[in-house]
Structure prediction request, 443 residues.
Amino acid sequence: MAKLNIDKYLESKKGKPINPFIFFIMRTVVAKSQAAPMNVHVENDTNINKAKGPILVFSNHSSRCDWEYIGMAVKKPINFVASNIEFHRAHMHAIFKICKVIPKKNFVSDFHCIKEIVQIIKAGGSVLLFPEGKSSISGTNQPLTPGTGKLVKKLGVPVYTTRITGGYMSNTQWNIANRPGKVIVTVKQLYTAEQVNDPALTAEKIEEAIAASIWVDDFEWNKEARVKFAGNDTVANKLEEHLFWCPKCGADLSMHGEGNKFKCTACGNGVTINEYYDLIPDSPDCVVPKNMRVWYELQRRWVYRQVRDNPDFSLEAKVKLGIQPTDHYVDKTVTAEIVGEGVMKVTRQEFSYVGTKNGEHFEIHCPANAVISMVMSTDSSYFGGFFNGLYYEFQPEQKVITKFLMAIEECHRLAGGIWQNNIPQQQWIYEDDKPTDKQEYYQ
Prediction:
C-alpha cells in the first residue's frame, strides 16, 4: 500500500461533477437537518433548480455554515470550492472526497483549482464559489478575489448568485456557538451564457455585478428586521479576539467580553449586547459605535492610518508555528500541528516569521504587495497563509490576530498590491476625518 501523501493527492486530483444522488443526500439529510433549526428562508424566483447544463454560482461567505444554507436553496447538483487546508483534517477529507469538493489555496494563485473547475464545467457539472476567499469577519462583505471576472469569461456559462442574510449573526466570527434567529438565502440569475460571452461585458463589469448582487450588511438589515438571535447570554465571550480597540480612550488590546457584557479594562467604557446585537451603553458617558460592523471598520481605519502615516510601521508578536503534515491528517479540533516558535512581524515592506521549525532555524519573508491576506480561524484566534506553496499557521500568545490581519491587508494595499478595497460602502475608512464623523459612526 502506497504511503499517504496528501499534497500529491490534491495536486493530481481530477475535477469531476458530484454524483446527483450524493448531492441529494447531502442537502436533504445533512444540510437540512443542520440548517432547519436556524430558521432558513429561501427567496428564489429563478430557474436555477431546473437549469440544464453547467452553471456558476457565486455567494457571499457569511459563516462556516454557508454550505448548509445554500443547500436549502439550491437543488441542482453543484461542486463546492473550499479551502485547501480543510482537506488535511481528519473529519473532513473523506466527505470532501465523496462530494468532489475542489481545493483552493487561499489568497494565492492556484492553477490546479482553476483546472478542476474547468474540468467539471466541461463534463457538464456546476460549481459554487465564495469569491471573497474567506468567511465574513465583520458581518458584511470583503473585496472579491482578483480574477473572478476573468474566470467567468473563460468558462462562458450562466451565472447565478446566492446572498445569505443573517448568517453572520447566526454563526459569529469570534464565537462559534450557533445562535438561531433567521437566515435568508436570496437566489438571483446574474447572466445568461449569451450575456457572459458578449465582448461588451468586461471582466471588471462582471466583478462589480457579482459584488453588488451578494452584498449584505447583517447589522443594517437587522436594524429594520428586528430578528432576535438566541444565546445572547454568552455573545460577548471572546469578543476581544474580534474587537480589540476602545473607541473612547483609544487603548489597544484593552477590551474584554464576558456573558453579554463588553468593556474596556483601561477606562471602563462598556456595552451590553442584546438579542438583536444592539450595543447598549453602560452609562451616558460611554463612547459606542452604532453597531459591531462600524466598530470593526473604525478599527481598520485606525490601523490604516497607523500604517499610512508611519513609513517605519512595525508590528510583531511571539507565535507558535504550525504546519500541515502530508503523511497523516490533523485532528479535527485543529488545522495544523505545532512545529516551532518565533516572532511574526508586519511592516510596510514585508510579512516575516523568524524562529524555529522542527528544531531548526527557519525564516519566512514575503513582500507586502504579495501577501494579500490570511486565512483566519473561525474564532479569530489564529491565522495562516500559503508561502511557496505550503501552508503555515501562526498562533500568537496574545489576542492580536484581528489587528495583524488588518495590518497585513492595509500594508498590501499601500504597497500597490492587487487586492485593493474597492467596495463603495467602505471607502469612508480611507477618507480623512470629517466634522460629522462622530454623528455618522457613533451612537
